[in-house]
Write a structure and sequence with these properties.
The protein is of the alpha/beta class. The chain has 17 helices and 16 strands. It has helices at 8-16, 33-41, 57-64, 73-95, 149-169, 174-180, 207-216, 234-238, 255-269, 287-290, 298-310, 323-331, 344-350, 362-371, 403-411, 430-439, 450-459; strands at residues 21-28, 48-52, 100-109, 120-127, 136-144, 190-198, 222-225, 231-232, 243-247, 280-286, 314-318, 338-343, 376-380, 382-383, 390-391, 415-417. The two termini are 41 Å apart.
Length: 465
Amino acid sequence: MQGDIISTHQKALTINLSHRKYGTFAEIGAGQEVVRWFFRVGGAAGTIAKSISAYDMTVSDAIYGPCERYVSRQRLVSMLEHEYALLIERLSAKRGSETEFFVFADTVSARNFKGTNECHGWLGIKFQSSPLTGPNEIFIHVVLLDKENLAQQEALGIIGVNLVFGALHYHDSAEKLMQSLLDDLSVARIEVDMIKFTGPGFKDIDHRLMSLKLVQLGLSNAAMFAANGEVLQPSEILRKRPILVERGSFRPPTLVNLDILECARQQFSRDEKVAGQPLLPLVELTMKNLLQTGEICYEDFLARADCLAATGTTVLISNYFEYYRLAAYLARFTQERIGIAMGIPSLMELFDEKYYQHLEGGILESFGRLFKNDLKVFVYPLKDAATGQLINVQKLKVAPNLTQLYEHLCDNGCIESLDYFNRDYLGIFSRDVLKKIREGDHTWEAAVPPEVARIIKDQKLFDMA
């Protein structure tokens, strides 16, 4: 609640007045905005062992070692490791038995004079939760959204104080810590699209849940994790690559889910603008899908994540219900082609005008946004349950007033039918498989990949009977 928020001033002062917290601040880019708060509120001598800002690249390399990109996770980690080792070496013998040491670091690219750069940064803290214990680490990636450099610096200072205070006071509750990151801020000013916890105090944290909570708590509109559960920073993974994404419930992932993605991957890879490049396939879970029952069931989410992990898939969690918003998000990171794979039912929803009533230009505006970046939609056919006939892009009928628009998009290659697919999979639907799992009908096993069936049976997922 807003009334429960502790101000940035009070957080910095609380830390300064604690005789047990003592550490170093190392900041590169956008000024020394975080440590400035601790100097400003008074009592900084009780908290700050050292403040350093190695702006010059040669100086930075001399201290922290060479690095390909200066605003990167690699640079942040080297800063934390170097400064923490120095802190312990110099002060542990003198005051280690009564002090919880910490190092805060950030490396940031704020808005330049011409306004042409990517405005983002890495922030992290390495800290002891009690004296003489091994350190824990938290690091985050932020996207700075203010239009002015000074406003971005101000936002950076606030979120830095929030991170330091959260680590030192809320480390027993990852969710409370995450909720506090945007205290005195808003997602309109800054996004947190990745968070990583390491150390003995965080050994039980599942980072897939943390990725979900970033979106659920409104810190970001999207987050990613790899098949092995490792949290991913979107711009690192998506940068300058052609991307193919399939949206679904994956409850559970079925043979048809995998066939849609694989057929689309093969067809997309033959595109002359994609051929020879490392295409990145993703599966997407939307918050709307995860909230279908009214609230998120974390056990159900992890069941889906475990099954998707068995298929080796990278997962994107997003708050982008409209496809044009998803396309705009992906286009932030790449100028290469973007592909979206879907089935006929999803294509029919795409042409349902009720979803675009909030747009001044209606469905035309939505499609203008969706296809403006040379995007392609790949469509998997559907077998009509009543007639047994195959419905594909060519046979689909849309509303009469949209027929010309539909034909225009198809004729210009914006919407393509997937030509090579496994006909044996056309009758598979996740909802039917889920029902069979819960009813104890073992025929469901033939509808999912063997590795998924094994995970479901071993862990008794999805309320298996």
